[in-house]
């Protein structure tokens, strides 16, 4: 999976340097819908070709500098034979934008993530759900009036209840770090 993310990030940065002229950043408000694809790693792990995630987003850029966003993410199964998990959930965030020019913006976001997990440790399976904080940084580049490309890093702070397993995992803090590329359609 990493072999796809690195070229995608490089393409997004190249596009940012080329800056296609179009409507000004002061006009960048309104509803958008988007999708991201990328990879993730659990705390202490590595970005792995098998750890894919898919994310859908719906947001409203209230001003050129502030927006709100909802998302749904499904993480693939991760871990090893002794302990593994599969997580999905939805979130809500506040997004702060910093327009660099008419085509390129960087942004930061933070919010709440409500998740469900199926966790398996040494053959014992348990379903857990909770909510946790997440935050991230990203860059967006408008390639046309209604179409933009994005690159994002996000961290989801997931805490499992490890008391339910025969051998507790090394840590119940399983932060998930994500790197994604995506597309947004503005209305």
Q: Can you characterise this structure?
A:
The chain is mainly beta. The protein has 1 helix and 8 strands, in the order αββββββββ. Strands 1-2-3-4-5-6-7-8 form an 8-stranded antiparallel β-barrel. The longest helix has 17 residues, at 2-18. Mean pLDDT is 80; it is low at 12-26.
Task: Detail the topology: elements first, then pairings.
Elements lengths: L1 H17 L11 E13 L9 E10 L4 E14 L3 E17 L4 E18 L2 E19 L4 E10 L19 E11 L1
Antiparallel strand pairs: 1-2, 1-8, 2-3, 3-4, 4-5, 5-6, 6-7, 7-8
Keywords:
single chain; 187 residues; mainly beta; eight-stranded antiparallel beta barrel
Relative helix content: under 10%
N-C termini distance: 31 Å
Beta fraction of the residues? over 45%
Q: How many β strands by DSSP?
A: 8
N-to-C SSE series? Answer: HEEEEEEEE
Regions with pLDDT < 50 over 5+ consecutive residues?
Answer: 12-26
- Please count the helical segments: 1
**Widest beta sheet: strand line-up:** 1-2-3-4-5-6-7-8
Radius of gyration: 18 Å
What's the overall geometry? elongated
Q: What profile does the largest beta sheet have?
A: 8 strands, antiparallel, barrel
């Amino acid at each position: 999976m990493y072999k796809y993310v690195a070229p995608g990030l490089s393409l997004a940065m190249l596009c940012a340097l080329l800056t296609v002229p179009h409507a000004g950043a002061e006009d960048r408000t309104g509803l958008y819908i988007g999708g991201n694809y990328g990879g993730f790693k659990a705390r202490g792990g590595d970005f792995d070709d098998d750890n894919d995630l898919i994310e859908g987003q719906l947001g409203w850029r209230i001003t050129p500098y502030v927006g709100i966003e909802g998302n749904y993410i499904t993480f693939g199964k991760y871990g090893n034979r002794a302990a593994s998990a599969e997580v999905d959930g939805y979130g809500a965030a506040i997004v702060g934008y910093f327009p660099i020019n008419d085509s390129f913006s960087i942004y930061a976001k933070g919010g709440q993530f409500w998740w469900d997990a199926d966790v398996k440790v040494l053959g014992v399976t348990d379903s857990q759900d909770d909510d946790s904080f997440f935050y991230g940084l990203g860059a967006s580049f408008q390639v046309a009036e209604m179409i933009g490309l994005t690159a994002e890093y996000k961290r989801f702070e997931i805490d499992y209840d490890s008391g339910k397993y025969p051998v507790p995992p090394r840590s119940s803090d399983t932060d998930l770090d994500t790197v994604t590329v995506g597309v947004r359609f503005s209305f």
